[in-house]
Write a structure and sequence with these properties.
The complex is a heterodimer of chains A (485) and B (216). With 485 residues, chain A is of the alpha+beta class. Chain A is built from 8 helices and 12 strands. Chain A has 3 domains: 4-174; 223-321, Orthogonal Bundle (Helix Hairpins); 325-474, Heat Shock Protein 90. Chain B is α/β, with parallel strands linked by helices and 216 residues long. Chain B has a 5-stranded parallel beta sheet, sandwiched between helices. Chain B has a 4-stranded antiparallel beta sheet with strand order 6-7-8-9, covered by helices on one side. The chains are: A alpha+beta (485), B alpha/beta (216).
Chain lengths: 485, 216
């Protein structure tokens, strides 16, 4: 079953969203925390300032009452004594400050070790509690947050407990607003980034859809389809190029297979028709022995023709798939001499002489394939020579290349036939030798062998003046094919 | 019935011609398109067997040269099975189409059908009164009793029967019943006509002096 999470786009998007969410949340939390700490520090400074102002003003009042020096350092013990003595109140100039409960108000309370309240401001919040009394060896102080209030608590070894507080509801409200706006911004950023990411992922993956659509079309049999991704050089265009290359090679292989089958069936049709026609004719009624003999000879000829055809087709298919890959050092002169020996009988039958001028021409190659190449050229030359004609074979090496040449003095090749000469089943005169050796594949095979050896086969001819076929292999062969030694 | 075989493969050409001759047809052969077209235009053939792949002039070009002037039935032979090829052949004026390799019997049956259609008939059996000519089996019966005829007698009877009601000249009979290899001395028409009259009755084949023969 296909769920969204099988989709690459969805998975990329999910990972991207998770990472982005962590980053944004982390950033916002840090920002909020920093703002909060900053706010509290400011509040603490304010609180301490007010504390100092209050203490100073309280002490000044005590001094005024006792007529002592107002700048003397005031010990907690003394303050405790005074407060115990009672009668102390909130200094007049600060009375207003410690009466109201407007947002941001200050409050205070003093008590002794027993928890008895010595003095507290009128606006001391009902819900605020005083710290539990305890013994301390040296002055102990703490700043704490209680609800929306910030309190500084001091406990002195002498038994005095002082609580100064400040209302933070305004700051807390501001922080909450800040948190909301942070969240809002974060949500917007997240949404925009996700939308962008979705779009980007889709855009980046679009070539993959294109590739898969093309692959499906190719699988459906449209082998000539290619992806041909346009656009800038990226990993995907590279992939598309590699796939296109693969498709092209597969297509070529299929095409070769298809052509082989088509050629074989096409060329086999005529001899099979002959077999059918002759055998049916013979079976229809009794015949004389001579008639049977003639028919069987015809059938035999047709069978031989099919065999030659199939052998030539298999040879061509074998050579087109690369042929023998093992390369040995061989001498083209020796290969040619052997081919001449084999074909002397055929030449004599047609009253054609073969003149050879073979010089050493060593190269790396497959001697069997090269033998077929030379034999095919030679057979072709003999077939196209008039009776009493002469076929010349020469080979040699010149500096950068080795070459082999087969020349006949037959009718030559018309210019319009020359481009098609090496095509399979192309017969220049379209006339068939009808059971003769020519199945129209010899030159195609020779050309394929020449190319397998990193060389080429060329033809020069003028109508009426014979033809010259030249096989040439260059010394510097980068394909690791044939090379002179 | 005289048939022209245009096929470039000499062995197949020979075999096809022999098959057709065995069936009693007069057969001429041509090995390339030009020769074939020139012979076909002589107008003496009752059907043409035409290969598509021919040297010098291919089968389609031969058809183009024939049509529309020459209405002779043409059976095309091809090694190609592709439907567009068949359509092209039929559109170019071929009357029938056979793909190699084909069965000889099918070729013969299609040729018989083409020849019958060319003469206006449709069935394989031609009936004239009590006389029945089975063109597929090459058998002749009179009131159900089989009459033995020689190949030449049968050809003559079949041709006249297919062109029933027409006066067929002696020259036309020579053209259509004998190919170029036949020795004309042994083909004295009168002898065959009198043999047919002896076997089938005098009133079947009439002689129109100075014109020819007719089965009325």
């Amino acid at each position: 079953m296909k769920t969204p999470f099988h989709s690459l786009r969805w998975r990329i998007q999910a990972w991207y969203a998770a990472l982005l969410f962590l980053v944004v949340v982390g950033f916002c939390a840090t920002a909020y925390q920093l703002a909060r700490v900053h706010q509290f520090r400011r509040a603490d400074r304010e609180l301490f300032r007010m504390e100092r102002v209050f203490i100073r003003s309280l002490v000044r009042e005590f001094e005024a009452a006792s007529g002592q020096d107002a700048h003397r350092v005031f010990a907690p013990q003394e303050l405790l004594e005074r407060l115990r003595r009672g009668g102390a109140g909130v200094p007049a100039e600060l009375a207003a400050t410690f009466a109201s409960r407007q947002a941001g108000y200050f409050y205070f309370a003093f008590c002794d070790r027993d928890g008895r309240v010595l003095l507290q401001s009128a606006n001391f919040p009902e819900e605020a509690d005083l710290p539990a009394p305890r013994e301390v060896a040296e002055p102990w102080e703490d700043v704490r947050t209680v609800g929306t209030r910030r309190e500084s608590v001091r406990i002195f070894p002498e038994g005095l407990v002082a609580v100064f507080g400040m209302d933070l509801s305004a700051d807390v409200e501001e922080l909450t607003r800040f948190a909301w706006s942070l969240s809002g911004i974060a949500a917007c950023v997240l949404a925009a980034a996700l939308a962008g990411g979705w779009w980007l992922a889709g855009r980046a993956l679009r070539p993959i859809r294109e590739i898969s659509r093309t692959a499906v079309r190719i699988a459906d049999g449209q082998l000539e389809e290619r992806i041909n991704l346009a656009g800038r050089h990226s990993e995907l265009t590279e992939l598309a190029r590699v796939l296109d290359d693969t498709f092209a090679r597969l297509h070529a292989a299929f095409e070769q297979q298809r052509r082989f089958t088509a050629d074989a069936s096409h060329e086999l049709r005529t001899p099979i028709t002959i077999l059918l026609s002759e055998t049916q004719r013979m079976l229809k009624r009794p015949r004389s022995a001579e008639e049977y003999r003639a028919a069987i000879e015809t059938c035999h000829e047709a069978a031989l023709r099919m065999r030659r055809l199939v052998e030539a087709l298999l040879e061509l298919a074998w050579q087109e798939s690369g042929g023998a890959t093992r390369r040995t050092v061989c001498d083209l002169a020796a290969v040619a001499a052997e081919a001449i020996t084999t074909l002397r009988g055929m030449a004599a039958e047609r009253n054609v002489t073969i003149a050879a001028k073979l010089e050493g021409a060593s190269l790396r190659g497959d001697p069997a394939s090269l033998g077929i190449l030379v034999a095919n050229l030679l057979r072709n030359a003999i077939e196209h020579s008039p009776s009493g004609g002469r076929v010349e074979v020469a080979c040699g090496a010149d500096g950068s290349a080795v070459w082999l040449q087969v020349r006949d003095h037959g009718p030559g090749i018309a210019p319009e036939d020359r481009p098609h000469l090496f095509e399979r089943f192309y017969r220049s005169d379209r006339a068939r030798s009808g059971g003769g050796g020519n199945v129209g594949l010899g030159l195609a095979i020779a050309q394929t062998i020449a190319r397998n050896h990193g060389g080429g086969l060329e033809v020069e001819s003028e109508p009426g003046r014979g033809a010259v076929f030249t096989f040439r292999v260059s010394c510097w062969d980068e394909h690791g094919g044939a090379e002179p030694v | 019935m005289r048939i022209l075989v245009i096929e470039d493969d000499p062995v197949l050409n020979r075999s096809l011609a022999a098959t057709l001759r065995d069936e009693g047809y007069a057969v001429d052969v041509a090995f390339d398109g030009e020769e074939g077209l020139a012979r076909a235009l002589e107008g003496v053939y009752d059907a043409i067997v035409l290969d598509v792949m021919l040297p010098r002039l291919d089968g389609w070009a031969v058809l183009e040269g024939l049509r529309p002037a020459c209405p002779v039935p043409v059976l095309m032979l091809t090694a190609r099975t592709a439907i567009p090829d068949r359509v092209r052949g039929l559109d170019a004026g071929a009357d029938d189409y056979l793909t190699k390799p084909f069965d000889s019997e099918e070729l013969l049956a299609r040729l018989r059908a083409l020849i019958r259609r060319g003469s206006g008939g449709a069935g394989a059996v031609i009936e004239i009164g009590g006389l029945a000519i089975d063109t597929a089996a090459r058998r002749v019966t009179v009131d159900g009793a089989e009459i033995k005829l020689t190949g030449r007698e049968y050809r003559l009877l079949e041709y006249l029967a297919l062109h029933r009601g027409e006066v067929v000249s002696r020259a036309r009979l020579y053209d259509h019943l004998y190919d170029e290899n036949d020795d004309t001395l042994s083909n004295v028409l009168d002898v065959h006509v009198s043999n047919l009259r002896r076997k089938l009755g005098c009133d079947l084949i009439m002689t129109r002096r100075g014109h020819g023969y007719i089965i009325p």
